[in-house]
What does this fold into?
Amino acid sequence: MALGASLARGKCQHFLAQVLASSGRVLNLDETRTFKRPCRLQIVARVGKRPPLRRGKVSPCRPVPEHIPRPPYVGSPTIPEISRDYQMHDSKGIYRMRAACALAAQVLDYSGTLVKSSITTDDIDEAVHQMIISAGAYPSPLGYGGFPKSVCTSVNECMFHGIPDSRKLQSGDIINIDVAVYLDGYHGDTSKTFLCGDVSDEMKRLVKVTEECLERGIAVCKDGATFKQIGQTIREHAEKHSFEVERFIGHGVGTVLHSQPLIFYPCNEDPPSLGCMLEGQTFTIG
It folds into this structure.
């Protein structure tokens, strides 16, 4: 048995029990422009050196070769409904899921090497796009409910699902890069927050504690464990370090990008329908 987990570090790790976890997010496009993390905003306010994030210009969508298979939602401006089905896989499905997660992790690692002052998030999108299609995969965000880019880049107070644009990164920024790929019928979904240049100690602490929360959440995943243990573990570690946890959710992932179970982190009690993890399930923690 093996548990494949795409961690905040962007690596595919393998543990015991055949539940797969990878770091990911779900939010609609309008919410991504305004939804912010309280603890991060408090830190920015204390530092007081950076102006508010301003949206840059968004370049046209990048083309994908015709021979690369598309997810079913491509071509529709409507955000797909969250699938009610828990995604369970046989050995063949697990093999393909690992391959998709491994590619996503490789792309994420590469994107992190590009983070530096003066590069734009659109430059990162171009590099990610080219690496994904060169591997014969499709960038999952592109065309998801009309999303115009191949990767999500969320800078500073933009929490996640940020749209790459012409804004240049500046020393002191933090940027979350969220990579998802569609390979051989399966989605691999992972992300990591990177530091750009001279980042404040408070920002470094925020990123460090967030990564620790993710690793602790992944550590409780095994056949028979309850989903609510993930949220409890993450919340306890965050509060220990004086951070608050917003209503982040984990979600099922596999042949469908977003599905049940939806995992709400701050809640002690999960809806009864969530139940326990089962061997062969795949889901994200983000």
Notes: The mean pLDDT is 83.
